[in-house]
Amino acid sequence: MKKIKEMIVVEGKNDTSKLKTFFDCDTIETGGDHVSKEVLDRIEAAANRRGIIVFTDPDTAGEHIRRLIKERIPEAKHAFIAKSKAKTDKKVGVEHAGKEDLEKALKSCVTFMEGNFTLSREDFLDLGLTGDALRRQKVTEAFHLGKCNAKTAFKRLNEAGITREQIEEVLE
């Protein structure tokens, strides 16, 4: 069983249970998208001690939690899983993903750096990433940035330090 040194921030006990099935890991559960100050304090303390990986569901609530944590702990690592890899007929969540997809997500963590500008707005437009959701999705999946709209994709690509050249390689 693979040991994960960082604390993994998940939404609930089902996510914890699923991860512990495949990994030797510790988690902090947010209890949903209304994250209390106490839970944010625990996450910050864990980040200072061991580091954290934010691994929330690929949905609106998961993105909300991710933004809250990113504001408070910009150096946090982020793991993303595609919605198609983490869903049943009725639900979407980390707890519905398979072992291989969870391993891939945790192996491909990204740390976002505020104020990093490796890609200009002009580059982003030239690469055709504004009006073409499938093209944008191909790029964000290649760099494990999660599904996002054009504005978020531009921000995440810059914060992850991705260059125009790297994007061009993916699009070839």
Automatic annotation (TrEMBL):
Its main location: cytoplasm. It is found in: Cytoplasm. Residues 5-91 form the Toprim domain. GO terms for molecular function: metal ion binding; ribonuclease M5 activity; rRNA binding. It catalyses: Endonucleolytic cleavage of RNA, removing 21 and 42 nucleotides, respectively, from the 5'- and 3'-termini of a 5S-rRNA precursor. GO terms for cellular component: cytoplasm. HAMAP family: RNase_M5 (MF_01469). This is Ribonuclease M5.
